[in-house]
Write a structure and sequence with these properties.
Elements: H1 9-16, H2 18-31, H3 33-46, H4 54-59, H5 61-68, H6 75-120
């Protein structure tokens, strides 16, 4: 008996690309809106549409690109490219750290201002629940 290899619907749709998924989602909304909504949630959940969270995606963007890029055949250019990507990653990390420090500084400043107002009697003290 000959074994027939069957592809799942998801594998077939992946073979056609994102356009097939989008068409299926639109058709699902037209025919029966919960079906279209289910397809949309599946696409987001599975990561097939690249919707895995903007912040995390951007954080690893340069690193992920460097891991998948092949050599151009020109070793001098490849070294320059690797150094540039490393420098951009370092700058991105430094900028992210700067933003974190700035956020913490602002939070501390606002908290200190609140405590000063509370001590000087300018702010309203929270009333205990009766």
């Amino acid at each position: 008996m000959e074994m027939v290899e069957r592809m799942s619907v998801v594998e077939k749709m992946d073979g056609y690309g994102k356009g097939a998924w989008i068409a299926a989602m639109i058709l699902g909304f037209i025919l029966f809106w919960p079906l279209g909504l289910a397809i949309l949630f599946f696409l987001i959940w599975s990561g097939r549409m690249g919707c895995r969270g903007r912040h995390n995606h951007m954080r690893g963007r340069w690193h992920g690109m460097g891991a998948h890029m092949r050599s151009s055949g020109n070793s001098a250019f490849d070294e320059y490219k690797a150094e540039t990507i490393r420098r951009l990653e370092d700058e991105q990390k430094a900028f992210t750290d700067f933003l974190d420090r700035l956020r913490k500084s602002k939070d501390k400043q606002e908290f200190d201002q609140f405590m000063d107002e509370l001590k000087n009697g300018k702010g309203e003290e929270p009333q205990p629940a009766a």
